[in-house]
Design a protein that fits this description.
alpha/beta, Rossmann fold, about 260 residues, binds nicotinamide-adenine-dinucleotide, about 15% strand
């Protein structure tokens, strides 16, 4: 039986956040959402509407949590805050640095000072994307970084940050390199058109079950990197054995099972 935990989920109103919140709540955990918009499926008193830049709001929301799932970020295809034309293709200075570099630092500092036991960080397969391009698969957790572009660089930083906090501050930090959980019908069409994308597809259901397993695992090492995708259709791209070994997690879906946006 799973021990009920108090879990703070940042980015809880997003594609993956909604799936994580639903699965955690179904398993009896006490979930607090933290997002710039209300989190579907959570009552107002559990759905904190605030930005990562608001340290006081973040600390209030995290107080009492023994697990944090940090998902809030600027994804590679979205801009937050949306505004004037980008500095470069990834809006590095205006979006990615404040949200994906400073944001995780604020989360880890809050976790450290509040005594949170475990933090799960949402990284991406894009940090090793060059191996997929070279068909050097399946990629493992210790394959050297081969980031796609600047969004992926921020996730390399995220993993390094997690490693430091795990090693120096006794927090269990799990960085998960997520596969592709599509956010809109355009992304679904892109996956449908490309066999390799189908092999890194991550269904919302498998994502939710992954985060529930990450919350429920009794102990974890100070720092670990794992991959999470649904089952492959053509060829295995990411090595899932560490997620299986550490968390007992096994994907259930295979493209296009469970796809929803
Ligand atoms: N979906 C994928 O295929 C995929 C793949 C790899 C990694 N990831 C990572 O997983 C995480 C979740 O991705 P997603 O697909 O659910 O993205 P999403 O855009 O659907 O959700 C992100 C959520 O974070 C919130 N958010 C953004 N900036 C915020 C801020 N400053 N303060 C508070 N909330 C903020 C947004 O409002 C949104 O609800 C991200 O870190 C992303 O980089 C996603």
């Amino acid at each position: 039986m799973t021990t009920p935990r108090r879990v703070l989920v940042t980015g809880s109103a997003g594609r993956i956040g909604r799936a994580a919140v639903a699965e955690l709540a179904a398993r009896g955990h006490s979930v607090v959402g933290f997002d710039i918009r209300p989190t579907p499926g959570l009552p107002a008193d559990r759905s904190v509407v605030a930005t990562l830049a608001d340290d006081a709001a973040l600390r209030r929301a995290m107080t009492g949590a023994d697990r944090v799932i940090h998902l809030a970020a600027t994804p590679d295809d979205a801009r937050y805050p949306r505004g004037t034309p980008p500095d470069d293709g990834d809006n590095f200075l205006s979006d990615l640095v404040p949200n994906n570099v400073v944001g995780p630092y604020r989360v880890m500092e809050a976790a450290r000072t509040l005594g949170v036991r475990r933090v799960v960080l949402a990284s991406t397969g894009q940090v090793i994307d060059g191996h997929l391009e070279a068909n050097n698969v399946p990629v493992t957790a210790d394959s050297p970084y081969r980031p796609r572009y600047l969004y992926a660089c921020t996730k390399v930083f995220l993993e390094a940050l997690g490693q430091v906090y795990g090693k120096e501050h006794g927090i269990e930090v799990l960085a998960v390199r997520l596969g592709w959980c599509p956010r809109d019908v355009g992304q679904v069409a892109e996956i449908a058109a490309d066999p390799q994308c189908q092999d890194v597809f991550l269904s919302p259901g498998d994502a939710g079950r992954f985060f529930a397993a990450a919350v429920g695992a009794p102990t974890l090492p100070p720092f670990a990197v794992v991959y999470a995708t649904s089952r492959h259709t053509h060829a295995l791209q990411y090595d899932l054995s560490d997620a299986r070994r550490l968390l007992g997690w096994e994907p259930q879906d295979r493209w296009p099972e469970g796809v929803s946006v």
